[in-house]
Amino acid sequence: MLATVAVLQMNDDDMAEMIVSRTPEAHRLATWILRDPVAAEDAVQEAALAAWKARRQLRDAGNPAGWFTKILVNVCRDELRRRGRRPTLLPQAGSTGGSAERLAIRDEIGHAIARLTADEQIVIGLRFGRDLTVPQIAAQTGIAEGTVKSRLHNSLEHLRSALAAERRVEGNAR
């Protein structure tokens, strides 16, 4: 005997309200992942449109925010893959001032993060940009917790290597 699963759907007004209410947090996450506030705006808009179009496929009406975040992460991943390895300028979000040393460190980290793969940037963004735990990252991305742990470990190793490379480049430029 096959068990039937009841699919709860949100009505259109609730879906629109959820998307609009998640926009500021989605923009912060996309900016952290993409390192570009303008590209982040585009990603959030693309994710919102995709979520709206797919609103009838939402299977877990109890976690629409997680579903929307998963869509956003996929949009960001696609953008990072489109960029490939070509060099990009990294505009910094929230440049409201600060010491020159702090700005230099932020820029150095931004350049190092840009050297990571799309999947590495996403797991780093979710862990440190959104301060999510491994189980939360697994739920947001739909990948196993063990995979999240290994990607996070490898991403941090690659980030350390990228930071060391950035420092060597800076040292040679002086």
The chain-level structural class is mainly alpha
CATH class identity? Mainly Alpha
In total, the number of domains comes to 1
CATH homologous superfamily caption: Winged helix-like DNA-binding domain superfamily/Winged helix DNA-binding domain
Q: Could you tell me the radius of gyration in angstroms?
A: 18 Å
What does the average pLDDT come to? Answer: 82
Which residue ranges are poorly predicted, with pLDDT under 50 across at least 5 consecutive positions?
A: 1-7, 85-96
- What is the CATH topology assignment? Arc Repressor Mutant, subunit A
Largest sheet: none
Assembly state here? single chain
> How many angstroms separate the termini?
73 Å
The string of secondary-structure elements, in order, is HHHHHHH
> How many strand segments?
0
CATH architectural category: Orthogonal Bundle
Shape: elongated
Number of helices: 7
Classify the beta-strand content into a percent band: under 5%
In percent, how helical is the residue content? over 70%
